[in-house]
Amino acid sequence: MSKISQRFLMANQCNQSRSQKNSPKLPSSALGIHSADFDKDVQLLLRNNSITRREMVDHEACLQILNQVADQLGPQWSVKPFGSFVNGFGTRGSDLDATCYCEGIKQQDNHLALDELRKHLKPLLMQHPRFEMIEEIWGARIPLLKLKFNGTVEVDLSCHNPQALQNTHLLKAYANLDPAIPDFVVAVKLWAKKQGICGAASGHLSSYAFTLMAIFFLQVDPKVGMPCLPVTACDPTGFKTDIAVSWLCPLPVSVLLYRFFNFFATTFSWGSEVVAVRFGKRCLATDSSFQNLPARKISRFHIEDPFLKGRNLNCTLRSDQEMKLHEQFQNAVEAFQSGTLPESLKWDTVRQSILHEDVANIEGWVAQKDARNEANGVRPKRLFSQGGSDDESTESGESVNLAHSGDISGSSDSDEIQLEVLALPRISAAALWLGPESPSTNEVATAWQ
Hints:
Distance between the termini: 60 Å
Number of strands: 14
CATH class of the largest domain: Mainly Alpha
């Protein structure tokens, strides 16, 4: 065992011992007067990180054109989205994950997928005026093409990836059990991202891993008791049989968050237990059910992929980052116990960077639209200016006023930006900003005309 693993295991044992001697300082019932305020803060954070209506329109338009490209390969070919955009756990700025596949292919075949991507899909996409080839990733576990659609939508396109579709159907079923579930899971993902502990490319756990951790906690927490949905009943088209589950989440999101952090900080046995959504109960890595789980005998944080039993999602997690991950769970618990939300769950502490990022995205979208109009000989009508009206709604051709200062309510010192919303029916500025609704067929069809 490495020195890091030994030190980590000893720290975890000390935490568990301390947890057994003393019940949590802030049990669920003792969140008391803070709970309502905490929930308001979390809901504001979630609302301002939700997928926007504009993103929905763009993603749907992209999928339509990808399917048009797939049609050129034959009538049995299609493109399906998967991941956070469709499973109910998406956030603003999420890229679009999609897989192109031919009916009848049930299992992932990397050699076949690589051949199809290189010889057929890549040439068609490179010829298409609305797609830009960003990167070709052939050596990954799942080969894929990284694309950009209309200069704004980042797309990861794989081929013959049915497990991803199964996974998406399962997670969507969990998201549909109760409205508190997607709120809770998205809050966990936002916390992890803000704390700098999420991202496989940086030696951290992936966003998908955090999603599984959140669902596993909901399954095993005795005060929550979320049902475990049968993985074997799910295939790439959805659930093979109707699953009738009636369950309501008994706790508010803020209490779920506290109990989640406390569970992984002091209760879960790092190094010996497995996060196993497939079973929905606490299991040891030495159990025969995990005989195909890589590195299960090593004292590391184990997360099983529910559809790929031979995949341990700790494969991206560096040992030093594992220590940091555990420390962040402890810090979050301490924040709750001191009567406050962790800073990364407060909208006030993150809204300014998000607003500036969104203004940059809006400017980028407008620039792309203007460039396309100029190429087609159409004079752009949009105008950026300071100030403007505070109209709540707009017809196509009118302007929406979005503050991008630190004060979301607006102030005399705030800068404001105006943009014209083209090819969209009347919608409120709040709907464009927060994106609570799905786009209509007309919006998708006209989004990039």
